[in-house]
Amino acid sequence: MLPLKFAIAVFLVVLIGNSIVAEDPYRYFDWNVTYGTIYPLGVPQQGILINGQFPGPDINSVTNDNLVINIHNSLDEPFLLSWNGVQNRRNSFVDGVYGTTCPIPPGRNNTFNLQVKDQIGSFYYFPSLAFHKAAGGFGGIRILSRPRIPVPFPDPANDYTILIGDWYKKNHTDLKTILDGGRKLPFPDGILINGRGPNGVTFTVDQGKTYRLRISNVGLQNSLNFRVEGHKMTLVEVEGTHTLQTTYSSLDVHVGQSYSVLITANQEAKDHYIVVSSRFTTPVLTTTAVLHYSSSNTPVSGPPPGGPTIQIDWSLNQARSIRTNLSASGPRPNPQGSYHYGMINTTKTIRLASSAGQVNGKQRYAVNSVSFVPLDTPLKLLDYFKIGGFRVGSIQDSPTGGGIYQDTSVLGVDYRQFVEIIFENNEDIVQSWHLDGYSFWVVGMDGGQWTQASRDGYNLRDAVSRCTAQVYPKSWTAIYIALDNVGMWNLRTEFWARQYLGQQLYVRVYTDSTSLRDEYPIPRGARLCGKVADRHTRPL
């Protein structure tokens, strides 16, 4: 009996020890947000720096890590960061948009506690208030797989973040003034790669080695095409999903989207252009960076290679070719294809149509005819403290066909529903839609009007799961989504002037039976503001 009791005791000690060790790791970040003079397009302008950097530092993490990010606001106005693609499971309080989170006042700080629960992939953060995004303040987020989870490609020799986006020479305050005056923004002045203009960034590679490029379009409105002179790119990941490893010579990256590609340095050992150009615009904006072979003494020369310009069908066909690798593991060891989304019956269809127009002589943008206006208190806090002030159902779940009007649009949906959302674009631009707190399956996209017969062409087997989807001009895009993350979540266009002027809404995912098992309480020490600050206090 003694050996048995001893064995049981040892087992319990090991079990308890493993439980302690198994707590998910913490990573700490301390950031100071300041203004600084930057020269991305050769002229001085006011930029937003994080710890003196433009763009800001990368967030490097591993699945399930706890990220503790202390942000000091040294600007002269309120500030917030949001985490594009981080799902913040059960915790929309820290999403970092004004509908969920109180801004950080000037001269104060706030600590955000995020967990990248059950996620992998390439994302980015950005400032969400006051058109700050046009001044910088953005940076990359990478979530690596845990060591015991297989990844469907060998470790690269290096892993580069590449942030691309259109850019204005005007300060963000001047752009905001234009929008506040009810006018449209002019055409952008250029394109940046990692905050620099033409040939301002160099990426060094060794002959014969393979590298991962994490490409995010952090710009304000334009779809961009990315290519590397003389090199093929193998797509391996899209916003947290391992993809079929399809090879491309160039890749369309729509605003708000993120991709990971592998390139192998198997060409002549000289410097090669990395090219980014605008899509569907006249004129076409182009910029370059340099892929430098470590043994090269030959700089780039001649014109950079051209790419697609206005071809919609080319882009649509490429989008349809991006599929999930069903046999690869995601954040967990089970294959990504083990969740058979195409075999689940949808319980609701939501149709969302974008539009543009004038309200009281000023430019506004809308979803289902409603142009969003914020309240003086984040909606999530009004909801949590049961203060009210907004109406769930203030936006219809299908287009009304009426003129644009202003309201605080909140769409109510039931927790654990499995829904179909149709994004309808009757305009001549490429739209790009993002939903915080979630990934969704992009099951279909096509030109013309969506009808029920459009479902016959859905991909119900290996559609890519992501958090930002494009909608081509005069076209529609359909997504399936499992509403398994309780909270108040921002659904918005990534065309940032349109978002600023009302083309967004909040999706309230909730049921009367929702409990603390489904949603965390408001974080201790959360900053409070507006009506909540007047009626409730918590330790800061």
TrEMBL record:
Signal sequence, start to end: 1-22
Keyword line: Glycoprotein, Signal
InterPro entries found in the cross-reference section: Cu-oxidase-like_N, Cu-oxidase_2nd, Cu-oxidase_C, Cu-oxidase_fam, Cupredoxin, CuRO_1_AAO-like
Keyword DNA repair: no
Plastocyanin-like domain ranges (all copies): 32-146, 159-295, 395-513
Family recorded in the similarity comment: Belongs to the multicopper oxidase family.
PANTHER family membership: MULTI-COPPER OXIDASE, OS04G0561900 PROTEIN
Protein name according to UniProt: Multicopper oxidase
Organism the protein comes from: Solanum tuberosum (Potato)
Lineage: Eukaryota, Viridiplantae, Streptophyta, Embryophyta, Tracheophyta
